[in-house]
Amino acid sequence: MGLFGKMFEKKTCAICGGEIGLLGNRKLEDGNMCKKCAAKLSPWFSERRRSTVDSIKEQLAYREANKEKVAEFKPTLTFGTNTKVYLDEDDKKFVVTRVDPRKFEEENPDVIDFSQVTGVDLDIEENMSEDEREDSDGNSVSYNPPRYFYSYDFNVIIRVNNPYFNEINFRLNSSDVEINSHGSVPANMKPYPDMNRDYQEYKKMGEDIRAALTNARQQVRDEAAAARVPKQAVVCQCCGASTIPDENGRCEYCGGAAV
Ligand SMILES: [Zn+2]
Ligand SMILES: [Zn+2]
Predict the structure, then answer these.
(1) Which ligand is closest to the CA of 243, given by its number?
(2) Which of 16, 123, 147, 178 is 20 to 30 A from residue 2's alpha carbon, by CA?
(3) Ligand nearest to the CA of 20
(4) How far is the CA of 5 from the centre of ligand 1 (A)?
(5) How many angstroms separate the CA atoms of 1 and 196, rounded?
(6) Judging by beta carbons within 10 Å of its beta carbon (0-12, 13-18, 19+), is residue 204 exposed, middle or buried?
């Protein structure tokens, strides 16, 4: 078979063993993967080309186990408008996804423990585009001083401890948040986006997500720390024994209220 034949040689998926169609190949470090298998990977995963067949198989096992967590996931608090953050406060877990909870089973969004959160950032990105005028020859030229339109994007970055991705990164706004209701602004004049209602809304949304996840994580850490503190012995007020009361404060010897 010549070079031309080699180009059209059918490849086999190292994961499922299926034949890979034209343009369907997803290259791995040491093999090939089909589109169907690639679609089952976490949406937050981006290291495919540097991944081995074995690590992809491991991730797919993790994704399969995640389906059970999705089935048990009960959102109690939601943030966002497009991509949303759903918290299950009772089970101390969260997911980030664009799909509605009714489609969670189909979508299989990664269910993350609050304790896996290592940090949350809100990045407000300022974008400038120049407002130009036409000169007498019909050419677009800068104003003097140059004038700009300003718009903003609100990005949330949730850093997590997970073997397959370490960041959940998404944008709160679906289109640029423009604050140009009064036209463009000269370069030497800084806009005051905080006066804009959309800007305020998205900023608050991002700050709320950051606060909710940061607090949730801190609470889990505090509870874990409290559980590690050795219980103190007290002298029972009923029987006088030195006792470590149970969680209801009852003496382990006489069953009376020890404190
Ligand atoms: Zn496959
Ligand atoms: Zn006692």
Answers:
(1) 2
(2) 16
(3) 1
(4) 23
(5) 65
(6) exposed
pLDDT digits (tens, 9 = 90+) for 181-199: 678 888 888 778 888 899 9
- How much is the CA Rg of the chain, to the nearest whole Å? 28
Give the tens place of pLDDT for each residue, 89-108: 999 999 999 999 999 999 99
In this prediction the pTM is 0.82
* Contact residues for 150 (Cβ-Cβ < 8 A; gap 6+): 126, 127, 128, 178, 179, 180, 185, 191, 193
For the chain, the structural domain boundaries read 1-65, 73-227, 229-259
Beta-bridge partner residues of 113: 93
Please tell me the distance between residue 243's alpha carbon and the centre of ligand 2 in angstroms: 7
Give 17's DSSP letter.
Answer: -
Per the CB < 8 A criterion, the answer to whether 107 and 95 are in contact is: no
Query: Given the structure tokens 């089952």, which residue do they identify?
Result: 40
Quick one: how far is CA 59 from the chain centroid? 17
